[in-house]
């Protein structure tokens, strides 16, 4: 089961980037004062909603591939069914959602692609959505496959799953190989923009240090439990573009639930 653990996802994501300092504040156990020492007591509601696209030569590769294929089908006179025009914009897109409120943390990841009905009907396309929904509370971890509806649940005993620790500026070291930061605003939130040697740009949320979110990051744009890349743009049009639709802090949200519709 994939876990959205405190600190661990970021450690795995940055493992391939030499010299990056993990954004983990010292815990109370290291000082001999117990696991709860120093933990943030009041975490506000935090809701993130963003999308990522893999670009090749500046274009969405999956969407371009579908359009080339369906146009070739029609030009060849083969029986063809296109996906709905409104759904074409979803192709090759991954949507990330995160909900945090101090009592639970939930994530949802959805990806869409155009799929032929079968090898006998290679030009009959339909929209397919895959993804996962997870929820972590003090007592359980739940993960659901959005395509199949199959879910797994795991009891938790430690009571430390949702603990967060504030970061200082010293904890938030600049990632190796990046220049910056340049202070920006994305989706109404402050972020630190870093530029790699290849001129790829990432802007990482800088407004969450008091709840354990750092603003330095490697080149993995996926949200982790302690870092949100709000914007990313590959310099040469080859790589991931990240766009944030929403990041709210302190605004209550409805209890998240697994998506049941394709959108």
Q: Briefly note the structural class of the backbone.
A: mainly beta
Radius of gyration: 20 Å
Oligomeric category? single chain
Overall pLDDT confidence: 84
Q: Can you write the helix and strand succession as a string?
A: HEEHEEEEEEEEEE
**Number of discrete helical segments:** 2
State the end-to-end distance.
24 Å
The portion of residues assigned to helices is: under 10%
- Main sheet? 12 strands, antiparallel
As residue ranges, the low-confidence spans are 5-33
Please give the number of β-strands: 12
| DSSP strand content | 35-45%
| Global shape | flat
Put the structure in a nutshell:
The chain is mainly β and 263 residues long. 8% of the residues lie in helices and 39% in strands.
Could you walk me through the main structural features you see in this protein, from its secondary elements to its overall organization?
This protein is mainly beta. The protein has helices at residues 8-13, 61-75; strands spanning 46-56, 59-60, 93-100, 104-118, 121-137, 140-145, 151-155, 178-186, 189-196, 201-205, 229-233, 239-249. Strands 1, 2, 3, 4, 5, 6, 7, 8, 9, 10, 11 and 12 form a twelve-stranded antiparallel sheet that branches. Strand 3 and strand 4 form a beta hairpin.
